[in-house]
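Reviewer 2 asked us to include a model.

Predict the structure of this chain.
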Amino acid sequence: MFNWERVITQLFARLGGPMHFRFIMQPLMAAILATIDGIKDGKAGRPAYLWEILSTAPDRKALLREGWKRVSRVFLLAVVLDIIYQLIEFHWIYPGETLIVAIVLAIIPYFLLRGPINRLVKWRVNRKLQKSKPEIAGS
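Predicted model (C-alpha cells):
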C-alpha cells in the first residue's frame, strides 16, 4: 500500500539533507535551458511553448519531443542524484519519489519558464520595432 505520509515526509527531508544543493542547481539549469529556448522562440515569433502544446494538437508530439530533448539531461541527472541520496539516507530506492523529485526539479521549471521568456523577448522586439519606425509627418 502506498504511504503518502512517508512520501511527503521524505520529500521534504531532502530539502535539508545531504545533496540539497541540487534543489538550487537543477532548477537553475532547467531555467537556463528554458531561457535559451524562450529567446529563440521569441525571436522566431513562435507562440508561448506551453500554450502551443496545449492548443496545437497536430504539433504537440513534436513540441514535447523537442522539449524533452532539451531537458532530458537535467531530468536524468535529477534521477541519478536522487537515487544516490536515497541510498545514502534510506538504504533503499523509492522510484515514485525519484520521479516526483526529477519532475519538480527539471521538467516543471523548464515548461513554466520557456513561454514567459518567449513573451518577454517578443515584447522587447516589438518595442524596438515601434521605436525604430519613423513617424510620418501630418498623420
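The mean pLDDT is 88. The chain is about 80% helix and 0% strand. We have added this to the supplementary material.
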